[in-house]
Design brief:
This protein is mostly helical. The chain has 61 helices and two strands. It starts with 26 loop residues before the first helix and ends with a helix. It holds the Pfam family Exportin-5. Keywords: tRNA processing. InterPro entries: ARM-like (IPR011989), ARM-type_fold (IPR016024), Exportin-1/Importin-b-like (IPR013598), Exportin-5_C (IPR045478), XPO1/5 (IPR045065). tRNA nucleus export receptor which facilitates tRNA translocation across the nuclear pore complex. Involved in pre-tRNA splicing, probably by affecting the interaction of pre-tRNA with splicing endonuclease.
Length: 1245
């Protein structure tokens, strides 16, 4: 057997250390190492002592004698286990970071040391030491197996036949090799991927399979020992374990679990023919029949791996998947699910984890049954599988249920399994109806089993919200699919069920009381779920209706019958009186949906609905604040619903126009109403005339102009002109000219909690005056009528042309004043607008401008509690501050809404000669002073202004606007991240982490929104197909060839946006600078997206230019700097891939940058070799590996990779569970102070 030799083992023979040749290490050195280890793990050690000990151990690993010392320590079983483990770490460091510097003979000695350690393990050896030895074996195998090391397979077989402990090492090596060669992004394995891949195929696959199915394979390199291969050996060993006393003997049980883990890793890549030849599926199924949960779970994971393989050929599907559909297997899976079910009140964590994984396996089997049902042989139990899937679907754990729910959305669409699923349709409809409840809004102390499981499964609210959103989406899909298959039966059942609920909403609950109003009350949640069912069934019906046409007469009879049923049901619902304003609002919205979608040719019902809304009794009770707010919200929603009806039924409403106008006037004069409701009703009348196609055009224009006359007049009053003549005049107009004196006289700076200090009478009068003056600005009426003129109007339609002509006279009058308004509203937040303030008042103003907001998943209180707190503080100092900042916010967002609407007029808006400069100045001059959230709102409207710009106006509008936008965004985001990082580094235990988390969350959202805008502008996903196409230049680009002029081909009429951006230096420069700085922000999602954008953009700059130099120096430096930091370990492969792209763009400049890095300046040969390999043909995976290998001394590593701690076993979510927890929408932020105000983000949604 090989023994470690006596040749010196150190790079360049600079050391005297000898393996087995030098006397044992100095006992004092060993004592220091042991003391350092004890210091690290001793909880009483200070941070300084711990850091010093860590530094000492790190230096010990780098010592030239480290390999010799490490081997001596590791093999000496008298030494303490931690010391032996550190000895193995010293060997690991030599293998990972010194392998290339060793001579071949030295590498051989190191290999023999590790194999000797593997042979010497025994039962008494701690498991973590055995695993570490196996890890070292794997590390060496990745570097020389199949080249210098040809007899590894023979050594593994020898170990395999020795003892269970040696088998454990072999299983670790086999599993690790499979994962690191075929699955993980391991740079070392990737660099030798072809050799290692072939070697793995050789030793795992039975010789008979290779000979039969791969007769022409390369056999010149012989790494194999014996014919059976590791797949067969593993299956045989699994049978041996199961036939012995695995339940009582932990060593055998552990061996069986490790065999299944090795099989799982192998089943990812091995040829299906080997799986079939070794009868692997049958062997694994035997493990399911045990009663040992870890063993069952390992077996389920192995089967899940098989069923998760994509692109199986038909014969492979029949050979390795179809055996799982046999009656015996289906019965076994059913029994396993029944046995593994858990009670949330007495939760068995192991069984629960098994149930989750079993659900994922069954989902895969169901998906295959849907995709290849025609290939499943007769006699297999497909019906039994469907029964099992339906049983698992009903599980109270939605995490277990959701993979099956997703599978049912596919099965129900498939005709070949129609008969097998028909019997489950009714039960599925009932189940989905029940589970459309918004569980995230149930009380925290709810004893509902589903809620309890959700609380167990989710640590954060955003994850829970995203998961439940996906679950509801699948439920809605199923209701829609079932309704499309059986529309009349489904609708009759659903509408009957809904009517029964609506007639007895409260059931066993107390009757409604206004003082107890809550948006998330149980009755509201029940009604909301029922409405979701009805809306999805209505979509299913409409799709069914659109698919008909075979028998027109029969189709018409069916449609008429359905409409009669819908109208009768709706009329019966309108007779029910809903005391809860939230329920009443939702029911009106549902009625309008029926009217505009399913009853769109029955105007009589729409007219009935309008009269119903106008006759609504006054429900307001001001004494109950939350209830009163809900009533106002319902009234405003009714006005919006009337607008929806007016858009569809304009011609019919025109016939009762005078009656509607009288009724609206009566409503407005009979009860207190605000401007929002008054202008909402005005918009209804505007829309009726505007959308009517029966009015004469001249009459139409005259009547619309008359409605718009107040808007035009309001924007040119002398009072408005004076109020916008200066910032001071603006403050005086809003009643804020004496704000400084008021804050000082009321000693705001001395009050710690403003919400506890009541305003005096003068303060409350000032507060009311500010609100009143703000309402006098012409923003509300303008945005409301502008929305009526532009929303739901097709481009180039007569209605939009009419609106454009009507607003053409208003825009030049309105726009200058509008821009001054937004400029001053933003300047209010700028400290430079408040000169000469005493220090204490500076702090007061800063605090006054800080919003209160609630954020899902971070705020500690519920949303209802947050709004209650805000409402209860309206007459306090905090309420006054909220009024002041809310007024400015209302002005800003009002102008944003108007600008948003004006974009519909295209050239009539964008064509103003002086628009870009003043607009940019107004929107961005003071934007740096806004909070990150308010900048996000500004960004959303700026994005819309960019996207809606007509192609013929891009050259005029975009350069100034986009460049100004990105300069302010880059400055703001960079500064905010710097402040955030500083705050984190200086944080202590007493800091308010909740506020910091909210601030950071908003900053992440702003950063991602900006990066998403860049992705949209440069359209990186579409660029890929143009990488090699020479682009026409709409703007001369001096960066391409500074010394020459180009003659360009004629520009296309509608140039693609990304081409325009790439070759407009005014825009491209700030965009590239922003993206470069974003590579340094601590947000992996943003960095990953920037990398994708860069990689698609770089190929356009292959020629020598200033931009290419910027890419090869500045962007490269930013990428390497991020690669250096441990925080970015999750995006290292993305950064490495981008670095490889930069090197392929220009070798010289990147070479200079890389040679300037520590440790590489004296290794030009290593750098040149890596660059040469990157320039050769190869895929991204290989290029990433080369870069990571080259920069391994530079790149940051996570703490577990550094060997400081073991990687913890987390409460792990599988890839499938992660799939259903993806947060597709940004966490919603709700501001305090003005809950009734909708942000621009909602407007754009």
């Amino acid at each position: 057997m090989d023994q470690a030799g006596t040749t010196t083992l150190q790079p360049g023979h600079q050391s005297n250390g000898r393996l087995n040749g030098k006397p044992d290490p100095d006992p004092e050195d060993l004592l220091k190492i042991l003391q350092a280890l004890q210091a690290i793990y001793d909880p009483r050690s200070s941070n300084t002592i711990r850091q010093n000990a860590s530094h000492y151990l790190e230096e010990a690993k780098k010592s030239p004698e480290a390999p010799s010392h490490g081997f001596t320590l590791a093999r000496d079983k008298v030494q303490p286990a931690p010391l032996r483990h550190f000895g193995l770490s010293m060997l690991e460091y030599a293998i990972k970071y010194g392998w290339e510097d060793f001579l071949v003979e030295q590498q051989s000695i190191l290999r023999k040391c590790v194999t000797e350690l593997a042979r010497s393990v025994d039962e008494k050896e701690p498991l973590y030491l055995r695993n570490k030895i196996a890890q070292l074996w794997t590390e060496i195998a990745k570097r020389c197996w199949g080249a210098e090391w040809m007899d590894m397979d023979e050594m593994l077989v020898t170990l395999w036949n020795t003892s269970l402990e040696q088998q454990g090492i072999v299983l670790y090596v086999l599993e690790s090799l499979s994962e690191e060669v075929f699955t993980r992004e391991d740079p070392t394995a990737i660099l030798r991927g072809n050799e290692l891949g072939k070697a793995c195929v050789e030793i795992f696959t039975p010789t008979s399979v290779l000979v039969e199915f791969f007769p022409t394979r390369d056999t010149s390199v012989n790494v194999r020992h014996a014919d059976e291969g590791w797949m067969r050996r593993l299956c045989v060993r699994l049978d041996w374990c199961l036939s012995n006393d695995y339940s009582k003997d932990e060593r055998i049980r552990t061996c069986a679990i490790k065999v299944l883990s090795a099989l799982r890793a192998t089943l990812v890549w091995i040829t299906p023919k080997a799986i079939h030849a070794t009868q692997c599926v049958e062997h694994i199924f035997k493990a399911l029949a045990t009663t040992t949960v870890p063993l069952q779970k390992a077996a389920v994971e192995a089967l899940y791996t098989i069923t998760g393989r994509a692109h199986l050929q038909d014969d492979e599907f029949v050979e390795i998947i179809c055996p799982m559909y046999t009656p015996n297997c289906i019965t076994l899976l059913s029994e396993l699910y029944s046995w593994a079910r858990v009670d949330i009140h007495d939760l068995d964590d192991e069984k629960y984890a098994l149930s989750k994984k079993l659900s994922e396996l069954l989902s895969n089997l169901g998906n295959y049954a849907e995709a290849k049902s025609q290939l499943i042989p007769t006699g297999h139990d497909l019906r039994g599988l469907m029964e099992l899937l339906f049983t698992v679907l009903k599980d109270p754990s939605l995490v277990i249920s959701i993979p099956i729910l997703h599978t049912w959305t596919k099965l129900l669409k498939h005709r070949d399994v129609k008969d097998a699923v028909t019997q489950f349709l009714g039960g599925m409809l009932e189940l989905c109806s029940q589970r459309l409840v918004r569980y995230e809004n149930l009380p925290e102390n709810s004893d509902d089993n589903i809620s309890l499981f959700l609380n167990e499964d989710f640590d954060t609210l955003p994850e829970k919200h995203a998961f439940l959103g996906n679950y509801r989406r699948y439920c809605v899909d199923i209701v829609e699919i079932i309704t499309r298959r059986a529309p009349f039966e489904a609708l009759q059942h659903i509408l009957g069920q809904a009517k029964a609920l609506l007639k007895n909403i409260y059931g066993e609950l107390p009757p409604f009381q206004a003082q107890d109003f809550s948006k998330n009350a149980i009755p509201v949640l029940r009604v909301d779920a029922q409405i979701s069912v009805i809306e999805s069934s209505l979509r299913g019906y409409l799709k069914w209706l659109a698919s008909q046409g075979g028998d027109p007469q029969e189709d018409e009879r069916n449609r008429t019958a359905a409409q009669d049923h819908f109208q009768s049901w709706c009329m019966s619902i309108l007779e029910i009186r809903f005391e809860d304003p939230e329920i009443a609002k939702k029911m009106v919205q549902l009625m309008v949906t029926f009217s505009t979608k399913a009853l769109n040719d029955r105007p009589s019902f729409a007219i009935t609905l309008v009269k119903y809304m106008l006759d609504f009794p006054d429900m307001d009770i001001p004494a109950h604040a939350q209830y009163s707010e809900a009533v106002k919200s319902m009234e405003q929603a009714n006005a919006l619903e009337m607008q929806r009806l007016a858009i569809v039924f304009a011609n019919y409403f025109l016939s009762i126009y005078d009656e509607l106008e009288r009724k609206i006037t009566e409503v407005l004069t009979s009860r207190p109403t605000d401007d929002k409701l008054r202008f909402g009703y005005m918009a209804v009348l505007y829309i009726i005339i505007h959308r009517s196609t029966s009015l004469d055009r001249s009459v139409q224009m005259t009547r619309l102009a008359e409605i718009l006359r107040p808007v035009k007049e309001a924007w040119q009053t002398p009072e408005l002109e004076r109020s916008l003549s200066s910032f001071e005049a603006f403050l005086e107009t809003l009643g804020l000219s004496h704000l400084r004196e008021f804050l000082s006289s009321r000693q705001f700076h001395r009050i710690e909690d403003w919400s506890t200090q009541e305003l005096d009478k003068e303060g409350q009068d000032m507060q009311a005056d500010i609100l009143s003056r703000c309402q006098q600005l012409p923003l509300r009426i303008t945005r409301t009528l502008l929305a009526g003129a532009t929303e739901k109007v097709d481009d180039c339609s007569p209605a939009l042309e009419m609106s454009s002509a009507l607003w053409a006279d208003i825009i030049p009058i309105m726009l200058p004043n509008l821009l001054q308004l937004v400029k001053y509203a933003q300047a209010f937040n700028n400290p430079e607008s408040w000169p000469n303030l005493p220090h204490e008042l500076q702090l007061v103003v800063k605090r006054l401008l800080t919003d209160r907001f609630w954020q899902a998943g971070i705020s500690r209180e519920s949303k209802d509690d947050f709004f209650a707190r805000v409402n209860n503080s309206k007459t306090t100092f905090e309420g006054y501050a909220s009024t002041v900042r809310g007024t400015m916010r209302q002005i800003r967002e009002g102008t944003y809404h108007i600008l948003y609407g004006l974009t519909r007029f295209k050239d009539r808006f964008y064509g103003f000669t002086d628009l870009p400069g003043p607009l940019s100045e107004s929107l961005f001059a003071n934007a740096h002073a806004l909070s990150a959230h308010h900048v996000s709102v500004l960004l959303s409207v700026a994005t819309h202004l960019i996207e809606e710009c007509p192609p013929n106006q891009r050259g005029h509008f975009l350069p100034a606007f986009v460049s100004s936008l990105f300069r302010v965004l880059d400055s703001k985001i960079t500064a905010e991240w710097a402040a955030n990082n500083k705050k984190i580094s200086e944080a202590n235990e007493d800091d308010n982490l909740g506020e910091e988390m909210k601030t950071e969350s908003i900053l992440r959202q702003l950063t991602y929104a900006t990066v998403t805008l860049v992705a949209s502008l440069l359209d990186y996903q579409r660029q890929g197909s143009y990488n090699s196409i020479p682009l026409p230049r709409s703007v001369h680009n001096p960066f391409l060839e500074p010394t020459s002029k180009h003659t360009h081909p004629s520009q296309p009429k509608e140039e693609i946006m990304w081409r325009f951006i790439l070759f407009c230096p005014t825009i491209l420069e700030p965009v590239l600078i922003f993206c470069t700085n974003t590579l340094r922000v601590r947000d992996s999602r943003c960095v990953g997206l920037v990398v994708k954008i860069f990689r698609c953009t770089f190929p356009h700059f292959k020629e020598k230019s200033a931009i290419r130099d910027f890419i090869c120096v500045d962007i490269l430096k930013a990428a390497i700097t991020s690669l250096h930091e441990p925080y970015f370990v999750d995006v290292q492969k993305d950064l490495a891939g981008m670095i490889a792209h930069i090197i392929r763009l220009d070798q010289e400049l990147p070479r200079e940058v890389i040679l300037s890095l520590p440790g590489l300046g004296n290794r030009p040969d290593k750098v040149d070799k890596a660059i040469s390999l990157i320039m050769q043909q190869g895929g991204d995976r290989q290029h990433r590996a080369i870069v990571l290998d080259l920069l391994q001394g530079v790149r940051g590593v996570s703490i577990h990779e550094q060997g400081k701690i073991e990687r913890a076993e987390p409460r792990k979510k599988s890839a499938v569970q992660e799939q259903y927890m993806e947060v597709q929408e940004q966490p919603r932020i709700v501001r305090g102070g003005s809950p009734q105000l909708a942000g621009v983000g909602e407007m754009l949604a």
